[in-house]
FAD/NAD(P)-binding oxidoreductase family protein (Tetracentron sinense), 428 residues
Amino acid sequence: MNFALSRFVLHFGGSLKTANSGRNYGGFLFFPGKTRRFTASSISKVQTTSEELLVVVGGGAAGVYGAIRAKIVAPHLGVLVIEKAKPLSKVKISGGGRCNVTNGHSADKMVLAEHYPRGNKELRGSFFSIHGPVDTMTWFSDHGVDLKTEDDGRVFPVSDSSSSIIDCLMLEAKRSGVLLQTGKVVTSATITDSGKFLLKIEKRTIDSVEYVEADYLLIASGSSRQGYALAVQLGHSIVDPVPSLFTFKIADTQLAELSGVGPMLVTHWGLSGPVILRLSAWGARDLFSSGTLFVDFIPDIHIEDVKSIIIRHKNQCAGIGGDILWASIPKNSLISVASLLKQCSFGVTGKGQFKDEFVTAGGVPLSEISLKTMESRVQPHLFFAGEVLNIDGVTGGFNFQNAWSGGYIAGTNIGKLALDDSLKEEAV
Ligand SMILES: Cc1cc2nc3c(=O)[nH]c(=O)nc-3n(C[C@H](O)[C@H](O)[C@H](O)COP(=O)(O)OP(=O)(O)OC[C@H]3O[C@@H](n4cnc5c(N)ncnc54)[C@H](O)[C@@H]3O)c2cc1C
């Protein structure tokens, strides 16, 4: 089967047109967007070089990694990544610009799964066995990126620059023949009579619309609403998206006096630090609307022990230097002090964004896909990977690991299906 032009309907502002085809970096077409116009000839480039087409929605970590893998497994497959902005833009800003690629302290899949507030049960299966943190680290080092594991398990490029990861992925995409088009949004997806995906792609800057027909569709659109809408159009449901990994804004002057660094970081505007981020992740859904936070400042000591320690100290103090104020505090008030230490309440007035990492909980429910293949249980040849799924992790590289694992598994299985299809065609 060849890509016949009729497989695509190209529609630009009301009429069919052809124009220039963008720059071709050895099979890797890059369309800078602002200066060059997307054209019919760029689409036909994909058509003439391959038999079947995979369209990947989203050039983020999951999309690019998945696209490369699909192309490696099935070199004859046309692989086209559509990215509405710049590719790998979150990789760029991730980890404070250093990119925390994965976590090197969690090789065991059961331990690994515990770091995912959404997905912790489902990810205990084959997901990380197929492509886990060690595989990710091997992949990047095999492709020329030296990595280091910090004491807390976070893995970064030795360069301490996310550009190392971006350059590596872009080079591999180019080398394997993945096509990337930027500045375009996939705005709708329907199923044709022949079971293929008819995608509407818009380039808003020049008010153009085009239609592409794809044999395989990988939705790797992160937390974008457009991505969720595509999933719904193709028969999926969406678990309401809510932010995860945030800090708590608290307007409490007494709290500001406690400013300091520790697992719970107290600042003049509220609370942050590892403990708070972990809490925000596990409680993302409950904490969606502002509420009251109860802090146990001494979690290792039982309330009854706290009471007796305070009362004992009062008795001690009473004997020293006539500390009348302390000594005269009634027992009930001391018990209140103990309760306050164990259960201090703060009104949370809002969420602050943690600049190093941020993720969305919610998305396509895991019950609607197979985590062994990342294929939809609703629509054959439809795949998902990354944050678009109802998977999110705590800080430490777990969110990128979800993107690498999902992208790799999806790419592998799309590639295998494409190989099977081409063998069947040859047999006919
Ligand atoms: C500031 C920040 C720092 C972070 N740091 C880390 C870190 O150090 N380690 C870690 O593990 N995680 C980190 N994360 C989380 C991590 O970036 C995400 O979990 C990860 O990027 C998800 O990858 P993805 O490919 O699923 O989605 P994304 O990276 O969001 O990529 C999706 C892409 O799809 C595009 N897109 C969406 N809809 C459409 C459409 N309809 N048509 C065309 N294109 C579309 C988007 O423009 C986007 O480029 C960080 C997040 C933030 C915000």
Observations:
- Residues 398-427 form the longest helix (30 residues).
- Residues 1-50 have pLDDT under 50 and may be disordered.
- The first strand starts at residue 9 and ends at 11.
